[in-house]
Amino acid sequence: MWYPGHISKAKRKIKEFLKAVDTILIILDARAPLATTAFERELFSGKKVLYILNKSDLADENYTNLWIKKISETSPVISFSKDEPVNKIKKFIKSFSKEKLKETRVLIAGVPNVGKSSIINKISGRKLAKTGMAPGITRGLQWINLGNVKLLDTPGILYSKLFNKDIAAKLLLIGSLPVESIEKYDIITRAYELFKDELNINKSFEEFLEEYGKQRGFISKGGIVDFERTKNNIFKSISEGKFGRFTYDKEVNLWMQK
Prior knowledge:
By secondary structure, this protein is an alpha/beta fold. It folds into two domains: 5-160, Rossmann fold, CATH 3.40.50; 165-239, Conserved Hypothetical Protein Ylqf, Chain: A, domain 2. Helix content is 35%, strand content 13%. It has helices spanning 5-17, 61-71, 87-94, 116-124, 165-173, 185-199, 205-216, 227-239; strands at residues 23-29, 48-54, 77-79, 104-109, 142-146, 149-153. Strands 3-2-1-4-6-5 form a six-stranded mixed beta sheet, with helices on both faces. Helix 2 links the parallel strand 2 and strand 3. The chain starts with a helix and ends in a 19-residue tail after the last helix. The relative contact order is 0.17.
């Protein structure tokens, strides 16, 4: 399973910086709030934790509301999308700042490609962090000064091994795992099953690949569908929400078991 060396290094660095921060801001993908906690949350034990359900414009609104209600039973949480004013996040962070401190330090954490860097750039009003649709863009830790609030942006982190096929499949669907990194075909087919259930597709993965590839002209020499290119394009389109708004984590009551 995909696990670049910089993720392991990031975890070591995060441990070093934890004493210097007051609050942990964990970014989740609203489409898969459980799957996007696939890292050692005990790293942040003893710290105040805030959650943002990001990319809520790509998720089923009804489920997002259910997740907010559930998570708020134990932790502060808000949803956020690219079309919302960033003041919503600024107010959220500041409302949980320690009043007597002149400076509040907040560490931003999450799995790859949940939108940490995009949020950093929106809060700062400048392009301070690299962004992209591919996971693993942020490679190092960096402090971002916003007056009396300092934000520590961090690379995406994950469990070193993802033993749960459903979690890996959901991370693939939202773009937190690059499709070319998936060695086990059963994870790809499981991801397709979750996706086709949302659209009521009655085709096997192979049938869907062939039809999709032909429609988009992904044809290799000999008039055969280029299945690798087709597969990559499908999962990229799914992760970008081009097929619609879906929530893959529907078992809200499992939150406390994480």
